[in-house]
Amino acid sequence: MKTNVLSIAMIVAGVAVPTTASAQCPALLARWGSNGGELGQFAAPWEITADAAGNIYVVEVMNRRIQKFSSDGVPLGAWPVGETQGITFGPDGAIWASNGGSPCRYSTEGANLGTVQTLYHSGSGIEFGPDGNFYISDPDRHRVIRYSISGTLLGSWGTFGTAAGQFNRPNCLAVGSDGSVYVSDCGNHRVQKFTPEGQFVLEWGSLGSGDGQLRYAMGLTVDASGDVYVADYANHRMQKFSSSGAYLCQWTSDSGSPGSPMVPIDVTILPTGEIVVSDNFNTVQKFGAAPTPVTSSSWGRLKQLYR
């Protein structure tokens, strides 16, 4: 696996500006799935999540079900759901699905645990914050909505547009351990970061195929270090950024090999650090953990420590 010289970014006035870093790409470990409705097949896999044991759960838009797999891709079961795109684990240990206008809860074996009564128009992504409240991305109305775990509306933000804090179809979101909310602003080809209450913090990305640019940003997730992984849908790649939007690395199905097929929809991280991606080619792909690039600033800190 060769090391590539890639550009990262610093944050200046809330926008990413390129600098330089050296990084390796995660290696493809496994790929499973094909088009169809049988167990282990997919029809429009969308959001993906994982439990503490490393089991993987994939929601399918066309088959209207959630499938469960082992960390190695062995099918473990499936159960029907409604018009669902988003899934996540709640603090109650249940799988929460952004079913229509109110999220539905399921056990890890598919038992229906009931619906939490809320009202939203086109819920796509769903994620919990460390405070136990959850967020819904509502792409049709270009907003993010925040609820308590019991379904009490706590607030919302966003309107249609291109300014900071506005959206053009925010499809997915992720929440960091500090409560920061990251939203994939799909039609604006960027990621926006907010406080838990919805105050704009910063943004990164622009339309294009260069390092750090995006073409229809889709699913995203945050790892234990606070780095953000973004499914760069129409550029057929995954990209990794720091929590401040600094570009770190990118990869395709075969870690940068030309012609590797990938149309990523969503991404999750297993307890092992391995990265799992749902793909519009009706597959799920698992990659090794992404290494942290060595930047000029981090190299300077290392030299100071070991003089």
Structure description:
The protein has one helix and 29 strands. A hairpin with a 5-residue loop joins strand 18 and strand 19 (181-185). Helix content is 3%, strand content 43%. The strands form eight sheets. Strands 5-28-27-26 form a four-stranded antiparallel β-sheet, with no helix packed on it. The protein has a four-stranded antiparallel β-sheet with strand order 6-7-8-9, with no helix packed on it.
Q: Which outline best applies?
A: globular
Terminal residue distance: 30 Å
Category by helix and strand content: mainly beta
- Largest beta sheet: strand ordering: 5-28-27-26
User: Please, how many helices?
Assistant: 1
User: Overall pLDDT, averaged?
Assistant: 87
Largest sheet: 4 strands, antiparallel
Radius of gyration: 18 Å
